[in-house]
Design brief:
By secondary structure, the protein is an alpha/beta fold. It has three helices and seven strands. The N and C termini lie far apart (52 Å).
């Protein structure tokens, strides 16, 4: 039987321990490091005046804009460089075409403006999908029974 695996310890033949002797040098040659600066904090915003639990995600809440701004300040203090905003659009603002997404005064636009004013150096990501704005919940509009993304 032929093995396609290289013989054990075929490379390197010499292990340079000097790179692993001290903590500073181990850190210097480490393959990967995960820090707060690598994270994106997802935040859920709604237009109600209080925080509200997200039933499918224990310990996670939909926040009004004022609480969202506080969370953004906390993210910045922790060294998290970016937050991603996900809106919970009230049912009366939803339609089949997702028209509220085009409103410059919609929940996402108000949240982003408040965030950039309060924490100008924080990155803010927004989803461009229409699902929060449509009555049918699809990411795009439906044309002839087909989601036309």
């Amino acid at each position: 039987m032929t093995s396609f695996l290289p013989p054990l310890a075929s490379y390197p033949q010499t292990r340079l321990r000097r790179n692993r002797r001290d903590p500073w040098s181990r850190k210097l040659v480490a393959e990967s490091v995960l820090t707060a600066g690598d994270l994106i904090w997802p935040v859920f915003v709604h237009d109600e005046g209080h925080k509200k639990p997200v039933p499918s995600m224990p310990g996670v809440f939909r926040l009004p804009i004022a609480a969202l701004v506080d969370a953004a300040g906390e993210a910045a203090e922790l060294g998290i460089p970016t937050i991603a905003v996900f809106p919970a659009v009230p049912a009366h603002l939803k339609d089949a075409e997702g028209g509220e997404a085009l409103n410059p005064g919609n929940l996402v636009c108000m949240a982003v403006a408040a965030l950039k004013k309060a924490v100008p150096g924080l990155g803010v990501l927004c989803d461009v999908a229409l699902d929060p704005f449509t009555t049918h919940g699809h990411d795009g509009v439906i044309r002839d029974g087909y989601v036309a993304n």
